[in-house]
Amino acid sequence: KNAAPFSNARTLFDTGSSFLRNNAPVKEAELKLAAHVACHSSTSTVDHLGSVVEEISKKGISLHRTKCTALINSVIGPVVHEDLLEDVGSGPYSLIVDESTDVTTKKQLCIVIRYHSKKFSRIISTFAGMINIVAGDSLTIANALFKFLDENKLSILNCIGLATDGCNTMCGQHNSVLQKFRDRNPHIVYIKCVCHSLQLCASKAVSVLPRNVEYMVSQTYSWFSNATQRLQKYSELYKTINVGESPLKILQLSDTRWLAISECINRILAQYVELKLHFQLTKDSERSYAAELLYQMYSDNINLIYLKFLQPIVSELNRLNKIFQLDKPDPAKLLTELLTFYRSLLERIGLPKTFQSWQDIMEFNLSDENLLPLDAVDFGVQFRLALLEANGISDLAEQDMKRRCRDYMLELSKEIRKRLPDNIKQLEALKFLSPSHTLSSSKPRIEDLPFFHLFKGDVGKAEQQWRVIHTLEWNNAEDGKTEDFWVEVSAYTDTAGDRNFEDLGNFALSLLALPFSNAAVERSFSQMSLIKNKLRNRLEQNSLLNIMRIRAYMQRRNICCHEFKPSPRMLSLFTAEIYSAPPEKGGEESTNV
């Protein structure tokens, strides 16, 4: 009797009999509560939450852990997944795929689908599936993907794009996941994740700079990390110098996210004098060799010049990285941004040359005979000003510093060139889908559009649409609104009610839905880490999958749990049959603490 309030030992008859009493409003309320738990909480809290809601509402709501888990796994999760598959339909789509390890060291293969949604009139990137795999080899991953497509009735021939990171397992020339996809769909467009590539380029290029620059940045963070007294002393010193202002937090340099050095350098340069003074005082007061070493580094003007040289370059790389990670980027501009940065690097270190096209840029030879003399290299205004202000730097040290900085830009250029997608010319040609190019009277022929071989409709009809599209007035004719422009084109109807540009519009939108980064799948892994954490480490795969489906559904519709409305399909599935599914081992929320 005393244990009754904490007992979950309800019989199947007890839980099932409530369905005879429940009416539609009560079912809707319980479904909304289950959706709330999936979005914001753990089902271990619903035993108490359900009782509190019942006490407040007096409407006969009865929701506990067993029923809530059943609703998530057998009603809401499957129905919202059906909604996604119905929205994709038989249209073209792209896949973004990556694998990671969860908190229990299980390998998880995450699948994100990107497509043009006619229901919502926009391009959507959303979570589609999470598969537990036993190995990370190409055969296991490819078979898991093919099985996923078959089970969800998604034709692999409709898959026009595939994005992964750049590892050999995914995109190698022999026996990779990409090659196995191309065995079944030869026309699939592969795009290597640009964000991963930029990270690798930045990490590789820094190897030509002195090691003490990276050491200085990382050890400055280490000095203050988990040291409350040091932080307090530095804060007091900073406030004394800057009349009460608080210092910025020193950021950690990540081994796997090397572009994080951009913000690290910004923070250090913003308080360089204060940090130098802090280490000068601390090396004597604490008799610390680490503080003395850092003080010597901060006192060396060469290190300051290196940081000022790096700052604008890594900041621009970081900006590019963020552009490619956007939820709604403009594909017509993405590759142009990257190639513009690459060209600017070439013009800083290479002999003057007029680049007539992007092809000229890609074919530029980065050998020594095409490089500027060291004194003619453009090291940037911050480098030049810092060099003028510095004292005590010998000519030999200055030449060595310039050589290393030139080599950094050269190495960065080589790495970017090496990691650019093989089909960069076609991807860059997506700019022809921008409103300014499409509505120009001098636009290219339709067969010159990128990936035109993927078009499956009436070519003659599409050509006529392409010819006359510039003769009409469009509301979204500004560059930067490429997606909105083509959505408007696709939905255009004439006076007779015919959609004269539907074929052309749908083709353009399918190309704009090509994935350029793995950012969406990385966000899904972040969600996975929040859901399946150390306290919920025994969360079963089916529960993890359906919770992520529900959260993705809310995100697709730009709603939260309080706006969620159970569909008639959910209400029809809300029967005693939801308990017939095999119980998960240990329950949905069993923990191993």
From TrEMBL:
Domain HAT C-terminal dimerisation: 500-552
GO molecular function: protein dimerization activity
Pfam families: Dimer_Tnp_hAT
Organism superkingdom: Eukaryota
Name by which UniProt lists this protein: HAT C-terminal dimerisation domain-containing protein
